[in-house]
């Protein structure tokens, strides 16, 4: 026994197969290149020794982090650092599912390792978010993805972040900053405001709630009576939140009360957005629209591409169904997805001559940049490819790029759709 060469070869094969399977399980997260170095420029606030996260000179960014959207988050972080005048003064607060989410992998430890590998000097903390904090409050909505507990994590920022953090900018994972986020950070919040965000008053606000809601004598218009201004739709993917006022006013509880009512009577169709509108519409401080150029994910129904809105752009948001990384991988990018790609740190599996020949023509064409990307990553550092784009000056005037024409009908339709993100 054991002397048979064929048997030994068979055993060796089994060992190799087992190793490959085990290796796959361990490699749940995709691989990312290390981002280029970044340094504070002139006139940045000096770090207060020993202050850590409580340093008053910091800009605090809060985002969720999970395996599924990690590629988006990595690009978003990179874009924020790249365009910041004081990148070393940005502190990132990441909320991640405490149980690592579905599908295994992507646990807090793995996410921490992945972020630190791409951004070795990034100042960040990851807060485990317990899904059971919200699962009992979530009702079925139009799109299953919107019911993911992590979508509701933004409601819990004030509970999770250290008490010394006075405000935070909450950002979705499908955004790119193309301007210095400190400008958004310095948004003035009048005493009455807890949240600042771009508002969209041309969107038909009544469509975010059901007939049940508007016809109920206790609800409907009564809910918004006495607000600072007329209630308008705003997108919760980009918000400046005063965490101290939030805590004092117990706004997490106010949101939960609406989520509980939703379980009794169906007052809205969407996920995490409507409770925010119920609490904050008409109360938010308006921010310039340049800070949420949303809807770039495309039309939810048609899957079509969308241009930027008219006006300057400081932050691009791929809200909606389509995500740039999916379309790029499929070889069918929208025009603006190429901008996103210049911030993509993802290392695709090496494209060999053999696999390239099997790809459809469009994918081969598109893999040109990807191949360069992979080669650069092998050198241990990604070249700074963003500089060949137009963002050096901070913001871009979109009219000059030819995307400016706006169709009012289209905008209206979009605002209905984008609310599903
Ligand atoms: C807004 O939407 C509601 C409900 O769908 C509709 O009844 C109303 O006519 C719309 N208003 C405008 C100005 O389009």
Automatic annotation (TrEMBL):
The keyword Flavoprotein does not apply. Residues 358-380 are annotated as: Disordered. InterPro entries: Glyco_trans_8 (IPR002495), Glycosyltrans_8_dom-fam (IPR050748), Nucleotide-diphossugar_trans (IPR029044). Keywords: Glycosyltransferase, Signal, Transferase. Its EC number is 2.4.1.-. Pfam families: Glyco_transf_8 (PF01501). Residues 1-27 form the signal peptide. GO terms for molecular function: glycosyltransferase activity. It comes from the Eukaryota. GO terms for cellular component: Golgi apparatus. Pathway: Glycan metabolism; pectin biosynthesis. This is Hexosyltransferase. It comes from Oryza meridionalis.
